Amino acid sequence: MNPKRGILERKLVSGKKKLLRGLLATAVLLAFHSPVFSSEAPVYGRYQVQPGDTLRSISERLLGDPKRWKELYDLNEGTIGEDPDRLKSDSVLLIPLSDERINELAQRPLESGLPSPPPAEGYLVKPGDTLIGIARRELDDPSLWREIYRENREKIGEDPGVLKKGLSLSLPEKKGKVEKNLKRCYQVKKGDTLLSIARSVLGDATQWKKLYRDNKPAIGENPNVLKVGLCLCLPEARYLVKKGDTLLSIAGTVLGDRRRWHELYLLNAETIGADPNALRLGTELLIP
User: Fold this and answer.
1) I need a labelling partner for 109 at 20 to 30 A (CA). Which of 170, 194, 205, 270 fits?
2) Can you tell me whether residue 55 is helix, strand or coil?
3) What is the pLDDT along the chain (288 residues), one digit of tens a residue?
4) How many CB atoms lie within 10 A of CB 58?
5) Looking at domain 237-288, which of 3.30.300.130, 3.30.70.100, 1.10.10.10, 3.10.350.10 is its CATH number?
């Protein structure tokens, strides 16, 4: 045998042994020091912000530590915006908990003295709400918007046409429906006729026949003879918008006071739309 070849084979075997020992040592080190990876995806639930909530109060109630508010902000910065102290009511935040756990912890009292969100009472204002719409849906009577405004004037402010989303409104007790033609009365003046009353009060002269039918027992057989001082029950007043009409002109003609245009708008906001100056020809308006 060639001596040089024997030396090379011995070196090759020794090198392989060293390589195997190195690989084995590396495998042992990785087994003990490598992080453990979980195949499970992180769980996130959703929490709807309540009036009075802050990131600190939410993180204490749901995560058990008010100092974790920054973690919540980082997770929801796109929803919250640049200011972490301004949470919008009804906005939805991601929380690193399951929905079931969130619902379980949401009612937990705070131990740190941080304010808890007040319980929702009455009606929470939603986007697009108006006092007229709330009165119609919740109380079955749109005319009760004034009563809602009176009870909540300090919260709403001077303009009843502007409602902030998430505002909690106190609502008056719901009453039974009352027939519209029993809620409004007109006292006959000298020179009045059914035609003139229908035109000026109801906004439609052709309504004089309905006015007569509804009040025939009080008027008598002759619709042309009206006694001064007689109280006539009026049907629900409606006005058909004509060319050139504005809320100001309608308020002045039908209600006798141009300053009541805002009242007309509130009553018909859903019909008119966002711009009170854009009246569509032929639109039927309710008259308070």
Assistant:
1) 170
2) helix
3) 555 565 656 655 566 666 666 565 555 445 544 444 444 456 778 888 887 788 888 888 888 888 888 888 888 888 888 778 778 877 788 888 877 787 777 766 555 554 444 444 568 888 878 887 788 778 777 767 778 888 888 888 888 878 888 788 888 876 544 333 334 677 888 899 998 988 887 777 888 888 888 788 778 889 998 988 887 877 766 778 888 888 888 888 877 788 888 888 877 877 887 778 888 888 888 776
4) 26
5) 3.10.350.10
